[in-house]
Amino acid sequence: MREIFTVANKEFHDGLRNRWLLSITLIFAVLSVGLTYFGAAASGTVGITSLSSTIASLASLAVFLIPLIALLLSYDSFVGEQEGGTLLLLLTYPLSKNQLLLGKFFGQGSIIALATLLGFGASALLLFIQHSDVAILETFAYFILSATLLGLSFIAIAYMISLVASEKSKAAGVALITWFFFALVFDLALLALLVGTDSGLSQNLLTLLMMLNPADIFRLVNLAGLSSADVNGALAVAIKANLSQAQLLLILLGWIMVPLAIAAVIFKHKKL
Amino acid sequence: MKTPLVSLENVSKHYKDLSALSAINLHLAQGEVLGLFGHNGAGKTTLMKLILGVISPDSGHISVMGIKPDEKSAWHMRAKMGYLPENVMFYEQLTGLEVITYFARLKGHSKAHAKALLEQVGIAHAMARPVKTYSKGMRQRLGLAQAFIGEPKLLLLDEPTVGLDPSATAEFYQSVDELKTQGTSVVLCSHVLPGVEQHIDRAMIISGGKTLALGTIAELRAQANLPIKIKPHGLNGSLAHDRLLQPYLHGADTLYVPEQEKLTVLRQLLFDDSLRDITVESANLEQVYQYYLAQVDKIKMPSQSESDSENNKAGA
């Protein structure tokens, strides 16, 4: 346990030192406060907009940003240390591979979690002060929780990449492709599937397919409770899915555990 | 006899077609300093990784402090081992103290211990500066401080004096001697370095994953039977006319004499009244090393087909 904490502490402080925490928090805060105030500018009004359209805009931006940030934060975690020689050195210490993996995950995970809480929490607080409606806090709680899980999931995916890659630059390339796939290609493919097959794709199958992408699960968690007027695209179809928010969050949790477990297996068989 | 701290019996390690180590036998006693010599790719680092338990042998048996180092139960023992890798880039943006504190904590030691180590290796003045501002020598000292964490019982040092200036090298050997008196066993892995001879108990020379020689320097020197260099001064070329000395003569005034003829030759030289001074040099480690490497090249020619038959594909 002491070992995990020591590694986590070091990774967290690296995140502070490299201004990761500050920049991510700032990006999230500016994004969410901006959207909260000016989200409705297109429809001619400036000022705090409705909760559902704020969440809808936030979710559709965060779904691109959070995976990208998480991948950037973690893609070099292992391959970087391998290139520097410290990975081999750490493994000669009384520290198991799983302890090192978990330590890094907790350290970098808390950077993402804290940034999400502070950044998006800022606009939740702003809205709450204006409207003093408890529903705001509840909706934002789900948003922040799912955003954190989404970030953690992509940290775990980044670890898989970092453990497989032999060079830092290759890891960066693979991380970029991974982001492109989950953030854009996957949904386009789903849409093509929907349009291409006239009657074949049932709503259940579509929902099932969406479970294969953590970004889509994140979208579903946050859009499921909103009126469909604020939602468009392939999601509108899936929104009527019969999965509860709690179930969706559990599946998102699975998207953290499974990549992390796979990363542990890769690490175990990694030749140094 | 004490049980050895490290023992390797018939250990082999292959990487795909490449045989990194074959049939290595080594026993290291407590407080013993072993010099491990060989050129790049000879298998030195592989041998260290095996002892550290980072990789497992394909065949043979390794025991360190009575435990197989690659087993789970060996983890607690790792706190008693220190390792300095050959090329290590410590976290550049961290300060020296932060780096050593991190590694010390992982072995269950405090920041105060880290500070003391930085003082011991002589970079306490720079401990608040980021590692990226360190010179090559300072980085090497930082690596040594890292290896010394927790007063290890076994130290494995890969090229420890690279980048150190002569006085730092002397300080380093002094710390090795100190650790030795405290009962620490040390494996010094290096290309042959001047000055290393006085600080090691035994030398092991490996090439191509095979042991070429293992023993004290005196033993290796005797085994190699290298001639002794004798250089008399003030004889003004009379050596060439001396029937006893003439066969050993190289150049104008240097004699290369086999070990057993040393005293005979010296007596003969001392008869000469014009002798002003005399220097006698035994073969140094460098020459012994070169001798063993040359031996293996000689042996290789006729018996190549035999030794390479297993991995023919890797050859050529």
Describe how the helices and strands are arranged.
The complex is a heterodimer of chains A (272) and B (316).
Chain A: H1 2-17, H2 20-38, H3 51-74, H4 79-84, H5 86-91, H6 97-131, H7 134-164, H8 168-196, H9 203-210, H10 214-223, H11 235-238, H12 245-268
Helix pairs in contact in A: 1-6, 2-3, 2-6, 3-7, 3-8, 3-10, 6-7, 7-8, 7-10, 7-12, 10-12
Chain B: E1 6-15, E2 18-28, E3 33-37, H1 44-52, E4 59-64, E5 81-84, H2 96-106, H3 111-120, H4 136-147, E6 154-158, H5 166-181, E7 185-190, E8 202-207, E9 210-215, H6 217-224, E10 228-233, E11 249-250, E12 254-257, H7 262-271, E13 277-281, H8 285-307
Helix pairs in contact in B: 2-3, 3-4, 6-8
Can you describe what's shown?
The complex is a heterodimer of chains A (272) and B (316). Chain A has 272 residues and is mainly α. Chain A contains twelve helices and no strands. Chain A has helices at 2-17, 20-38, 51-74, 79-84, 86-91, 97-131, 134-164, 168-196, 203-210, 214-223, 235-238, 245-268. In chain A, 42% of the residues are buried. Chain B has eight helices and 13 strands. In chain B, the strands form three sheets. Chain B has a six-stranded mixed β-sheet with strand order 5-6-7-3-8-9, with helices on both faces. Chain B has a four-stranded antiparallel β-sheet with strand order 11-12-10-13, covered by helices on one side. Chain B has a three-stranded antiparallel β-sheet with strand order 2-1-4, with helices on one face. In chain B, strand 6, helix 5 and strand 7 form a beta-alpha-beta unit. Chain B is globular and about 70 Å long. Classes of the chains: A mainly alpha (272), B alpha/beta (316). At the A-B interface, helix 1 and helix 5 of A face helix 2 of B.
